[in-house]
Amino acid sequence: MGREEIEVKTERYRFVIEGTNDESVAITAKPWNKSATEDDVKLVQEFLGNMGRWEKLVSSATTLLGALGLDKGKTFDYRFGQDKYDIDLGLDTSPFGAIVSGIVRLKELEYNRRAMEGSCFLPVKEIACQIENISKWIDWRDSFLFSLRG
Question: Angle at Cα 97 formed by Cα 95 and Cα 99, nearest 5°?
Protein backbone atom coordinates (compact mmCIF):
# COMPACT_ATOMS: atom_id res chain seq x y z
CA MET A 1 0.00 0.00 0.00
CA GLY A 2 1.34 3.46 -0.92
CA ARG A 3 1.65 6.34 1.45
CA GLU A 4 -1.27 8.73 1.63
CA GLU A 5 -0.48 12.22 0.34
CA ILE A 6 -2.69 15.32 0.38
CA GLU A 7 -1.94 18.68 -1.22
CA VAL A 8 -3.27 21.89 0.32
CA LYS A 9 -2.96 25.22 -1.47
CA THR A 10 -2.94 28.43 0.54
CA GLU A 11 -2.40 32.04 -0.44
CA ARG A 12 1.38 31.83 0.05
CA TYR A 13 2.33 28.15 -0.05
CA ARG A 14 1.64 24.79 -1.61
CA PHE A 15 1.67 22.26 1.24
CA VAL A 16 2.10 18.53 0.76
CA ILE A 17 1.28 16.32 3.74
CA GLU A 18 2.37 12.70 3.55
CA GLY A 19 1.98 9.78 5.92
CA THR A 20 5.26 8.50 7.33
CA ASN A 21 4.18 6.20 10.15
CA ASP A 22 1.31 5.93 12.60
CA GLU A 23 2.33 8.81 14.89
CA SER A 24 3.71 11.38 12.43
CA VAL A 25 3.34 12.94 9.00
CA ALA A 26 5.87 14.64 6.74
CA ILE A 27 5.06 18.16 5.61
CA THR A 28 6.54 20.35 2.92
CA ALA A 29 5.68 23.94 2.01
CA LYS A 30 6.81 25.57 -1.21
CA PRO A 31 6.28 29.27 -1.85
CA TRP A 32 4.32 29.90 -5.04
CA ASN A 33 6.88 31.87 -7.02
CA LYS A 34 10.29 31.55 -5.38
CA SER A 35 12.60 29.26 -3.47
CA ALA A 36 12.01 29.09 0.25
CA THR A 37 14.24 30.98 2.68
CA GLU A 38 14.81 30.90 6.43
CA ASP A 39 12.11 33.60 6.66
CA ASP A 40 9.68 31.13 5.10
CA VAL A 41 10.52 28.58 7.78
CA LYS A 42 9.48 31.14 10.41
CA LEU A 43 6.35 32.17 8.46
CA VAL A 44 5.23 28.56 7.99
CA GLN A 45 5.84 27.81 11.69
CA GLU A 46 3.76 30.87 12.61
CA PHE A 47 1.05 29.89 10.10
CA LEU A 48 0.85 26.35 11.50
CA GLY A 49 0.54 27.85 14.99
CA ASN A 50 -3.05 28.63 13.96
CA MET A 51 -3.94 24.97 13.40
CA GLY A 52 -7.17 23.97 15.10
CA ARG A 53 -8.35 27.51 15.85
CA TRP A 54 -11.09 27.45 13.20
CA GLU A 55 -12.24 24.05 14.47
CA LYS A 56 -12.32 25.34 18.05
CA LEU A 57 -14.33 28.39 16.96
CA VAL A 58 -16.89 26.24 15.13
CA SER A 59 -17.06 23.81 18.05
CA SER A 60 -17.59 26.62 20.58
CA ALA A 61 -20.21 28.34 18.45
CA THR A 62 -22.11 25.09 17.93
CA THR A 63 -21.98 24.28 21.63
CA LEU A 64 -23.21 27.79 22.53
CA LEU A 65 -26.09 27.61 20.05
CA GLY A 66 -27.02 24.20 21.40
CA ALA A 67 -26.96 25.44 25.00
CA LEU A 68 -29.25 28.31 24.00
CA GLY A 69 -31.64 25.86 22.33
CA LEU A 70 -31.06 27.42 18.92
CA ASP A 71 -29.37 24.42 17.36
CA LYS A 72 -30.40 20.82 17.81
CA GLY A 73 -27.49 19.59 15.71
CA LYS A 74 -24.57 17.51 16.83
CA THR A 75 -22.23 19.05 19.40
CA PHE A 76 -18.65 18.96 18.19
CA ASP A 77 -15.68 18.30 20.39
CA TYR A 78 -12.58 19.05 18.35
CA ARG A 79 -9.40 18.01 20.06
CA PHE A 80 -7.14 19.31 17.35
CA GLY A 81 -4.82 22.29 17.39
CA GLN A 82 -1.16 23.10 17.27
CA ASP A 83 -0.81 22.27 20.97
CA LYS A 84 -1.41 18.57 20.20
CA TYR A 85 1.63 18.26 17.95
CA ASP A 86 5.38 18.73 17.87
CA ILE A 87 6.19 20.51 14.62
CA ASP A 88 9.83 20.42 13.53
CA LEU A 89 10.55 22.45 10.39
CA GLY A 90 13.69 23.37 8.50
CA LEU A 91 14.94 24.54 5.14
CA ASP A 92 15.60 21.74 2.64
CA THR A 93 17.77 22.81 -0.30
CA SER A 94 18.47 21.01 -3.56
CA PRO A 95 19.79 21.99 -7.00
CA PHE A 96 16.15 22.72 -7.94
CA GLY A 97 15.56 25.23 -5.13
CA ALA A 98 14.57 25.22 -1.49
CA ILE A 99 11.42 24.23 0.37
CA VAL A 100 10.30 24.21 3.98
CA SER A 101 10.05 20.64 5.19
CA GLY A 102 9.60 18.78 8.43
CA ILE A 103 7.67 16.36 10.57
CA VAL A 104 4.46 16.75 12.57
CA ARG A 105 4.30 14.29 15.50
CA LEU A 106 1.79 13.69 18.22
CA LYS A 107 3.00 15.10 21.54
CA GLU A 108 3.45 12.49 24.23
CA LEU A 109 0.32 13.54 26.16
CA GLU A 110 -1.80 13.42 22.99
CA TYR A 111 -0.25 10.09 21.98
CA ASN A 112 -1.13 8.64 25.40
CA ARG A 113 -4.67 10.08 25.26
CA ARG A 114 -5.25 8.46 21.88
CA ALA A 115 -3.71 5.20 23.07
CA MET A 116 -6.28 5.12 25.90
CA GLU A 117 -9.00 5.50 23.25
CA GLY A 118 -7.54 2.65 21.23
CA SER A 119 -5.64 4.40 18.41
CA CYS A 120 -2.44 6.42 18.32
CA PHE A 121 -2.78 7.00 14.59
CA LEU A 122 -2.21 10.49 13.15
CA PRO A 123 -4.19 10.68 9.90
CA VAL A 124 -2.77 12.77 7.07
CA LYS A 125 -6.26 14.21 6.59
CA GLU A 126 -6.31 15.50 10.20
CA ILE A 127 -3.35 17.77 9.51
CA ALA A 128 -4.40 18.66 5.94
CA CYS A 129 -7.90 19.74 7.02
CA GLN A 130 -6.53 21.94 9.78
CA ILE A 131 -4.08 23.59 7.37
CA GLU A 132 -6.93 24.16 4.91
CA ASN A 133 -8.97 25.86 7.63
CA ILE A 134 -6.21 28.23 8.78
CA SER A 135 -7.16 30.72 6.04
CA LYS A 136 -10.77 30.70 7.28
CA TRP A 137 -9.54 31.41 10.81
CA ILE A 138 -7.27 34.25 9.69
CA ASP A 139 -10.04 35.81 7.56
CA TRP A 140 -12.53 35.57 10.46
CA ARG A 141 -10.01 36.91 12.99
CA ASP A 142 -9.00 39.83 10.77
CA SER A 143 -12.64 40.69 9.98
CA PHE A 144 -13.56 40.52 13.66
CA LEU A 145 -10.64 42.71 14.71
CA PHE A 146 -11.39 45.15 11.89
CA SER A 147 -15.02 45.46 13.06
CA LEU A 148 -13.82 46.19 16.61
CA ARG A 149 -11.62 49.03 15.36
CA GLY A 150 -14.71 50.55 13.74
Answer: 130
Domains of the chain, each with CATH number or no CATH: 5-142 (3.30.1360)
**pLDDT tens digits, one per residue of 84-101:** 999 999 999 999 899 999
Per-position DSSP letters for 83-144, written without gaps between them: GGEEEEEEEEEETTEEEEEEEEEE-HHHHHHHHHHT-----HHHHHHHHHHHHHHHHHHHHH
pLDDT digits (tens, 9 = 90+) for 98-119: 999 999 999 999 999 999 988 8
Q: Which amino acid is at 104?
A: V
Instruction: Give me the phi and psi of 99, to 5 degrees please.
Output: -135, 160
Give the angle 133-28-44 at the CA atoms, nearest 5°: 60
Sign of CA dihedral 90, 92, 97, 100: negative
Helices then strands, counting H and E runs in the chain, come out as 4, 5
What are the phi and psi torsion angles at 117 (to 5°)? -90, -5
- Most confident by average pLDDT, 1-10, 11-20, 70-79: 11-20
